Amino acid sequence: MMHKPIARLASLLVAVSLSAEAPAWAQTVDQEFEFATKLVERGFPDFANKLMVQLVERNPELRGRALLIKAEGFISQRKFADAEAVIKELPAGDPKADAIRLMLGRGYFRIGDMERARALYQDFFNRFKDLPTDPDLLKAYRDTAYQFGQMLQQAGDLLGAADAMGKVIATKPGREIERSMMAEQAQMLVDHAAKLSGAERDKVLAQAAKLCADIQWGGVDLWFGHSIITLANIELVKGNRARAQELITRQYKDILREIDSLIKDQNLSGALNPNAGARFLLGQMYEQDAEAAARDPSKKDEVVQALGRALNEYFNVFVKYGDSDWGPRAGIRANEIKTRLEGMGRTVNVDLGAHAEKAATTQLRLADNLFRERKFAEAAVEYLRVVNAYPTAEASMRAMGFIIQCYIELGDKLFARAMIEFTAERFAGRPVAATALLSAATLANNKKDTAFAGEIYEAYLRGFPKHERAGTILFFLGNERRKAGDNEGANFYFQRIVDNLPQDQYYPQALRLIARSYYDLGDFEKAAAAYEKLVADIPPSVDRASAQFSLADAYLRMGNWTRAAAEFETLIRWLSPRDNPYAATDADRERNRGLLERAVFQRANAFARMTEPEDQIPAFREAGMKGYEQFIRLFPQSEFAPRALMGQGQIQLSLGQFDAAARTFEQLSAQYPQSEEGRNALFSLARSAMEIGQHEQARLAFEKMAANAASYSPDEFARIGQLMIDAQLYDQALQAFRIVSENKQVQETKDTPASRALLERALFGVGRANFARKNYEEAVKALERLLAEYPRSGLFFDARFMLGEAYAELGNFLASSQSLSDIFRFSNDPIEINRASLKLAEVQLRARDQTGALASFQRVALLSDPTKPEQRPFIQEALLRSVPLAMELGRFKDALDSCDQYLQLFPTSDKVPEMRRLRAEAALRASTAGQPPAAGAP
Amino acid sequence: MKRTIIRWLGFTVMIGALAICTTAQAQNPFVILANGARVEGTDIRSRADGTIILTTPQGQVTYQRGQYQRAEAARPADFDRARQLAQQRNFDEALRLLDQIANNFRFLHWDNQARILSAQILSSRGDHAGAAAMYERLFQAAPDQRRESSVLWGYLTALAESKQYDKLNPQLEELIARGSRADAARAQVLRGDVKMAQGQVEPAVMDYLRSALLFETERAVLPEALFKAAEGLERLRDPRSRDLYRRVAQEFAGTPFAQRAQGKF
User: Fold this and answer.
1) Which of residues 476-505 of A touch B (CB under 8 A)?
2) Is pLDDT of A688 > 70?
3) What is the CATH number of domain A1-173?
4) Which terminal Cβ of chain B has fewer Cβ within 10 Å, N or C?
């Protein structure tokens, strides 16, 4: 009984041929799958995947079939792990999983991983103790067996291949196919037997002879001809050379001639012509004659004649039947005999040069097989032999890649390097050679030898800077630097794409990453320039919309409100139409909706802040108000809605409309009571007033709150106290914190976490307010009290930092140092530790403790992690400060080390020339001061 | 400027082609009856209700609508005059003459020919909306003309050029779903053009590829589909554009697309 999932598998395996007969122009689901399959086959797996995503969005029930295409795409890109992951997404027993496994098997075979390929195929056949009875499944079984046989044959497993062909024959595929399979099987068995001896060999030869007899009983045709060659080969393997020759040249001569005419008359492929085998066999025999004659030095002429005859046969096979199984071997033999004859002083009038490309290609098949069998040492020798024979053939350039891979596999980097350099120099600019280097680099990467892969990539970029994959490689290298935290290094590679390869597929991504890195560094001007270029260079898409938003945002952060508003306006215009071209999928549309929402909000913000030209300000504010109103109308549930209402209130405040603003903030509290902005109208009003620099109005709002303190929570006073400090309204700030600390309820519950936190914030606020108004003694008092009463406070590190600064201002450097030292004694946060260390170094310098300061700088330079982008600015500053200090202290070795460290970590910094100068000076002074000499600069 | 010249050259070829077709027509007026029989005459007239009056040596014969398949007057001299005027770029005068023919030869074949030529003239001078409207008038008068491939594609192209996508898209979808393979392949390409014009580069490439991969046997459309897919991919900076350009140049040498593809890979 047939297993159901396997029956379904059969339908999957035959789907392609069935769908080809369907009316292709009817845009049905099947047609979309057919299209997707073709996209994968033609090298567009990404398009296929997008098509499937859209299809599944509309028809979720098609997910399983779409996964099949997805896996096919992964396999075509050699992403086998991803394809295996797809199998796991399918339900257990789903026949699509089997189809994917077989595709994976073919994929593994293509990359030479025969073991995995074999395991996957074997697993398939193990399921069938008996032949399937369902015709579709039987066809699938037969096709799979044939594919497997071909793979095994190419991998050199002839017995396995013959067995697989046996499986095909067992399915009774029809007379013609059956006879062709028998012929192939017989020849494979003979080739296998040639490697055996004794009874074992005779047994296999008998099997082959039986197959030949069966073929010959079936009548005279092409396969009859092949059986003759196989029988002759059997005799040769047995050592019956005369019998072999007789079979070909006498017994079956007429039949072979007849078959040759038939093939020519019917325009059939020469690859199948049995005369190729016959002539090759004759060539072998003549070669053997030459070997026998060569044993007698007096028979030199006989040797030459026999070699000439052999060459004639081989050359004819190679030229006439180059596509046959004998073609490549004949080419190799012909070339070797030609060389041998020329070495004997003979002129050979056979020109293989005209067929050099074909010869090299066919001869490489042998090397390729050795490579596939992972016999790397032998493969390298074979490849080199072909490269030397045909040094300028394209096939030889391809071979260079395999030679390098062989040496990588053998761990021989010296030879690999030699071949890499040769390829990059000798074949510079030739695409085949470029691809060869890349395949070698991929292997090095797969072996986790990234340093060596990097060397190969550099050689590639030197030799093939305009190659079609140069952009991909530059992008890969840039990304590697980015992962290592080296944004400058990353930008170095990305910039090369932007400057030299503006048509490359990675150009937009490179530009985007450059822009992003400037943005992250706060260099919004450069970020805006990069985003602007990006927007101009890419067609409408989610990415373009996103870049446009970032462009506008960069202007916003520069305070260029006019330009920001204009850029947001552009984005809004793009994304507002329903069928705009900026989205292809639901996910895209959702993302763009978010962008649009933020753009509408930010456009209003920009109008609310414009100050130039001055006479236009009322018009700007009006536009801002309308913008906020529009936003609230369009996106009432947005997280930005309370802020939009607050924005309206701020505009009213800026226009001196205090009462109107108060009403707006009341509305804010009523409509969005859960939002931070809406919790307290008066508080929000004060905060808004301060944000727009209306401190007087903020003070008025605060005084209203203070006058009616019981109506507001201590938390609100704690928050407004912080705001008052920012607004330099210190008296009000201190008053706010006093209200908090004197609050009856807080005092009564001062041991509860909530009250304790409020009291801590109040004390810290007092310290901060006094510090800000330079009343350091009062600041110290408040902060010391905070640390004494709440030693485990969450504000510990902030308080210690400020305390250190306050003591330093009072000239008490010892207390200052102790306070800062506590930070790196107790903190685990590298950023906090670095900040404290740099501050301590400052304090030490003020206390004239230069040695201590140098130690503090060095602590940052040496203990921080340069692969973390957020720590790199601290390292950079510490090194820049260390070098002159070390020089001043006469510690030239330390100065040298710091220079080296700087040059290594920041090779593209604008301080590099200065560092090189300081390094040279340090090296000179170290040598004159008798300190150890320095090595060469990196 | 270059575009105008190309349009003009295209138009001249088109008019020439039309001339070859039409001069081969019979010169005497005739009527083809419902049973397929052909009746020739010396003069022919029509009434507003579609009745045809054919003058034969035996006298006048009247055919009501439904009694005949087709009626055709002798080729009007003004038709050739209009064609010449159009070739001399005197479009307004040509259109005026054609309008007269359309009115004077109702139901007598030349009304339709005049509308087709008018639409072609309008397209060639860049008035695609006018051309589309003219084709619509033609289809209203003679719905069968919609089945003429050259006429239908003239109309669809005019719709695309005049950005009347709401009208165009359903017709393209219909052709893609139920048209002949040649029309379906061509419709995919035109749908790609529409998307490209709207800035939807990737979906446009998808349509071009759909035509190129699923309709590979439609050799008349294939180079255009491949070339346009390559152009779209180039806009997306996709290196696969080079492979497609290479294919167009190598497989379709001699086509204008092959010429344009040269040097792009």
Assistant:
1) 503-505
2) yes
3) 1.25.40.10
4) N
